[in-house]
Specification:
The structure holds two protein chains of two kinds.
Chain A: H1 14-21, H2 25-50, H3 54-62, H4 64-74, H5 78-96, H6 104-128, H7 135-141, H8 149-178, H9 180-185, H10 190-212, H11 217-231, H12 235-258, H13 264-285
Helix pairs in contact in A: 2-8, 2-10, 2-11, 2-12, 3-5, 3-6, 3-10, 3-11, 4-5, 4-6, 5-6, 5-10, 8-10, 11-12, 11-13, 12-13
Chain B: H1 5-30, H2 34-54, H3 58-76, H4 84-107, H5 113-122, H6 130-149, H7 151-159, H8 161-166, H9 171-193, H10 198-212, H11 216-240, H12 246-270
Classes of the chains: A mainly alpha, B mainly alpha.
């Protein structure tokens, strides 16, 4: 990246640094896309962490691999493949998984099996058609800095739709998450909400992974939300805090990546983890275990 | 087919890796630690790249990295069981670290990073040398024997940790040792099955066994046999069909076994025959 942009140099003048950052359209696009992705991932991730569905979230994020390789094989646009694969996996996890009353172990076994089947299919697609993709790494780790104007617009549309859907099902979903038995007794469709939420998670992941890569979506889904839940247990405050943290992490990571030769993903995950560790330590010191 | 040395090596390492994955995986599923196993398998991938970068023996780097992370996860979680969010967070960071290492590797003198990452991700069981195959088989056998030897206390401490503690079973130490065994199996299998697909061998045969029987001894044997069967069948299939990667074939068979077992359990459940006497093991309740 450094070679591409001439010679980015960090000075003590912060305003000049920011101006230098925004001078290139690719950086502006990356910041726009990163902000959209951060807001979406933080909101959906807050529910995911509360529902203890990180494993399902990771499985959905991995589905980007068979989605993109399958689409390349079939000659479809890869975004379409991503959405299809994530949607199919969401339905499989939510609907095909064990019913109520079965053990947590069996449920994770089901999710794990779904995940590897997706990956195995991805490797088959890749071996049938290895010329199309630039190796699996770009797919898994993303190209944050190659985002186009159209991609940003498409991303904004998807994020808007997903957040609107989340706002619609937010209250019953929260109820079904916190006390599934009582919610079910009161007539809240717990099972349908679970599938609905997984589909939403799949949508968010498919949108996000086009920017961050399949493997790093996960950092944005888990870390800001978990940090926010450490700080407050009130839903609205937690959601907002999660969004603020995620946006902050993405901006900082992009800026740091711009001024160095190392990849965005490394800064992103390190900042997210570092922030969380700081918050946990801070809470310990403050005397609330 | 067996006249080729590479096929014999593949079957030698594959058999014992699959056996270890099946046996260890049975406990992984019982303890609801599939996500931890998933995280460890990705650590193995990053460990391979780190070893390549540092210029040390790849298997050594793998084993060291997975063992270190297993120990860290056990230390962070309560009752030596890492919790959902902790795993997720460590996991994401390890992947970020992997990205950094790939960048460093591609700019360093070693070069050829594409081959290393791809074979670490998807495995290359038909490309094993005799010595790696023997080493993998040895580690697999060791892990199987370890888990088999500690079968009773491990089962006890998994099903009822409180009662086991009262009876003097070292629950915490067993938890750490078990994660170490998972890490060893992961490290041994990465080169053959690949970091991304390894999880299938841990989860699918074990999940199938848990659907078929509630008897621990029968279940663990069934799980091991299913894994070995999937491995043998998958290797033969991929030998016959050139464009089918071996790991994908193995996972496909293991997942088919899982699907059949789950379907059977569901049909029997619908007929009202189902009842497990096993208490619910829950790592989910531990909020950080």
């Amino acid at each position: 990246m450094a070679a591409m942009t001439g010679n980015p140099s960090l000075s003590v003048n912060l305003i000049a640094d920011v101006r230098q950052l925004l001078a290139y359209p690719f950086m502006v696009h990356a910041l726009e896309a990163g902000t959209i992705v951060a807001v979406l991932a933080a909101m959906v991730g807050w529910f995911m962490v509360l529902r203890r569905q990180s494993f399902a979230g990771h499985t959905l994020s991995v589905m980007a691999f068979p989605g993109a390789t399958g689409a390349a094989l079939a000659g479809l646009p890869s975004a379409l493949g991503l959405y299809l694969a994530c949607g199919a996996a969401a339905v499989a996890i939510g609907g095909g998984g064990p019913r109520q009353g079965s053990s947590a172990g069996r449920e994770t076994a089901a999710i794990g099996t779904i995940q590897t089947v997706g990956l195995a299919a991805g490797f088959v697609f890749l071996s049938l058609n290895s010329a199309v993709l630039g190796g699996p790494e770009t797919l898994l780790f993303g190209t944050f800095l190659g985002v186009s104007r159209g991609q940003v617009l498409a991303l904004a549309l998807v994020a808007f739709a997903a957040l609107a859907a989340l706002a619609l099902i937010g209250r019953p979903l929260l109820y079904a998450t916190i006390d599934p038995e009582v919610a079910a007794a009161r007539g809240v469709p717990v099972r349908a909400l679970n599938i609905g939420f997984l589909l939403l998670l799949g949508l968010a992941v498919a949108a996000t992974s086009q920017i961050t890569g399949a493997l790093l979506v996960f950092a944005l889904l888990v870390a800001p939300a978990a940090s926010a839940q450490q700080l407050t247990s009130r839903p609205v405050a937690g959601l907002l805090l999660s969004v603020v943290l995620a946006v902050l992490v993405v901006w900082l990571a992009l800026a740091m990546a711009y001024f160095s030769i190392y990849p965005v993903g490394f800064y992103l995950t390190t900042l997210a983890l570092g922030l969380h560790v700081l918050i946990v330590i801070g809470r310990r010191i403050a005397g609330r275990p | 087919m067996f006249s080729h040395e590479f096929v014999r090596n593949a079957y030698l390492s594959g058999t014992f890796i699959a056996l270890a994955c099946g046996v260890v995986g049975w406990f992984v599923v019982l303890r609801a630690q599939v996500f931890a196993g998933d995280a460890l398998s990705h650590v193995a991938f990053v460990g391979t790249i780190a070893a390549a970068l540092a210029g040390v023996n790849q298997q050594l780097g793998l084993v060291a990295a997975t063992l270190a992370v297993a120990a860290a996860m056990a230390a962070l979680g309560r009752r030596a069981q890492a919790d959902d969010v902790v795993i997720g967070m460590v996991f994401a960071w390890i992947l970020g670290l992997g990205m950094l290492l790939i960048t460093l590797l591609s700019t360093s003198a070693q070069g050829g990073q594409g081959t290393i990452t791809i074979s670490a991700l998807s495995g290359s069981i038909f490309g094993l040398t005799a010595s790696t195959a023997w080493a993998a088989a040895g580690i697999g056998l060791l892990a199987t024997a370890g888990v088999g030897g500690a079968f009773r206390p491990l089962l006890f401490s998994t099903l009822d940790p409180e009662l086991a503690t009262v009876h003097g079973v070292p629950v915490r130490a067993l938890g750490v040792a078990f994660l170490a065994a998972v890490a060893l199996v992961t490290a041994a299998s990465t080169e053959a099955v690949g970091a991304l697909l390894l999880l299938g061998l841990l989860a699918a045969p074990a999940g199938a066994a848990h659907h078929l029987t509630d008897q621990p001894r029968l279940g663990i044997v069934l799980s091991g046999l299913t894994a070995v069967g999937a491995m043998w069948g998958g290797l033969a299939l991929s030998y016959a069909i050139a464009s089918l990667p071996p790991s994908s074939a193995v996972i496909g068979l293991a997942a088919t076994a899982y699907g059949a077992a789950a379907l059977r359990a569901r049909l029997r459940g619908a007929a009202g025959l189902r009842r497990t006497g096993r208490p619910r093991i829950d790592t989910q309740t531990g909020r950080s």
